[in-house]
Design brief:
Alpha-Beta Plaits, alpha+beta, single chain, 152 residues, five-stranded antiparallel beta sheet
């Protein structure tokens, strides 16, 4: 089971997110459930348009590195260009969780390093799996989300 965060803040944001869902399926990643789309403020660089974000729960036979390559390929096919870190983007696909796997390489960190700090992934993840435990901290998505929003 893998959880993928999807976001867009350029162009037709909802359409970009829906196009990424279609591409995931075409690339053999079976989407089991998806959260609602939510509009969120930019994170990191504030002077840019707001985002549309969602999270999908999916199944794949790909290992994490191969999945990352597929996600980057989809971003490219949908027109994402390299910009400044945390800058505007047509589409952004991130592996948030991959089963209970923990890994940290120069290319990929699972669970996503910033997961407990980002409401734009915690809120949709909370919608899907509030009792899911973070494989490193053991904290539930519910606990992380409620803790984060208490500071917002």
């Amino acid at each position: 089971m893998v959880y993928i965060g999807i976001g867009s803040n350029l162009g037709q944001r909802e359409d970009n997110c829906m196009a990424s869902l279609r591409q995931l399926e075409l690339d053999g990643i079976k989407i089991l459930r998806q959260s609602s789309m939510i509009e969120t403020e930019p994170w990191g660089v504030k002077d840019q348009p707001g985002f549309i974000n969602l999270v999908v729960e999916a199944h794949t036979g790909l290992d994490p590195e191969a999945l990352l390559a597929v996600l980057k390929n989809i971003e490219g096919r949908l027109g994402r260009e390299k910009t400044a870190r945390w800058g505007p983007r047509l589409i952004d696909l991130d592996i948030l969780l991959y089963n209970s796997l923990c890994m940290d390489t120069p290319e990929l960190t699972i669970p996503h390093r910033e997961l407990p700090n980002r409401d734009f992934v915690l809120k949709p993840l909370f919608e899907l799996v509030p009792e899911l435990s973070h494989p490193v901290t053991g904290r539930s998505v519910r606990d992380m989300y409620e803790h984060l929003i208490s500071f917002l």
